[in-house]
């Protein structure tokens, strides 16, 4: 299936989602968010799909949300924010609800939601040249994609604070050492990663689904609650003078 700035294929049990907006460093537009959401929801009900893989084309995994606003009319902007946060909330919900494995292959730098969504992935591979950065405070924003819950539990509150509060740019080795990433690879070895992933298609489906329920199912309702609360706060931040001034300074 081809969508704008997304390459999505289903092949031999693997749904491959490739972010392909290289001119914007794979920044996620509303169309891309909705495309990924629909792809995951569809795959969840497709018996031919065993798991999903998300990666990026080119140098970047993702530079986060595409900040492309055409109008700053107050009423129009507020409506835009409500729609945008609803789209992102649905995107995050798709990851929370997904009953199959979702695997991230981080092929390069990740920023913003390109980082936070990793906490909802079941396995994360990353290139040695990948970096991970959350510039929320500088932009007057706050955590999203359940990172306020997942990150302290993955890496501890202090390391999570370095990312979420200070905007620290974490390198691949640090991400591996703190548990955000499970395996590092050289760019020349990325094909071997996909060969390794094909082995999963030989595993019993029932074993995979049961294991996913045991590992992820117990806190699903809590994650939805976190997602809801985060996106309410994100909407407020997006409407704040701090964020609008930060955005205007970049336009």
Care to describe what's here?
This protein has a single domain (2-248), classed as 2-enoyl-CoA Hydratase, Chain A, domain 1. The model has no long low-confidence stretch (mean pLDDT 94). The chain contains eleven helices and ten strands. A hairpin with a 2-residue loop joins β1 and β2. The chain has helices spanning 30-44, 74-97, 113-116, 136-139, 147-155, 157-164, 172-177, 190-198, 205-216, 220-238, 241-248; strands spanning 2-3, 6-11, 14-19, 51-56, 101-106, 110-111, 123-127, 131-133, 170-171, 183-185. 47% of the residues lie in helices and 16% in strands. The protein is globular, with a radius of gyration of 18 Å. α2 runs antiparallel to α10 (220-238). It has 251 residues and is α/β, with parallel strands linked by helices. The chain has a seven-stranded mixed beta sheet, with helices on both faces. A three-stranded mixed beta sheet has the order 6-8-9. This is Enoyl-CoA delta isomerase 2, mitochondrial.
Please name the fourth-level CATH homologous superfamily.
2-enoyl-CoA Hydratase, Chain A, domain 1
Overall pLDDT confidence: 94
| Percent strand | 15-25%
CATH architecture annotation: Alpha-Beta Complex
CATH class annotation? Alpha Beta
How many separate domains make up the residues?
A: 1
Tell me the total number of β-strands.
Answer: 10
Total of DSSP H or I helical runs spanning 4+ residues: 11
Helix content: 40-55%
CATH-derived topology: 2-enoyl-CoA Hydratase, Chain A, domain 1
Overall, the morphology is globular
The string of secondary-structure elements, in order, is EEEHEHEEHEEHHHEHEHHHH
Radius of gyration: 18 Å
Separation of the first and last Cα atoms = 34 Å
Strand order of the largest sheet: 1-2-3-4-5-7-10
Biggest sheet, open or closed, and with what strands and sense?
A: 7 strands, mixed
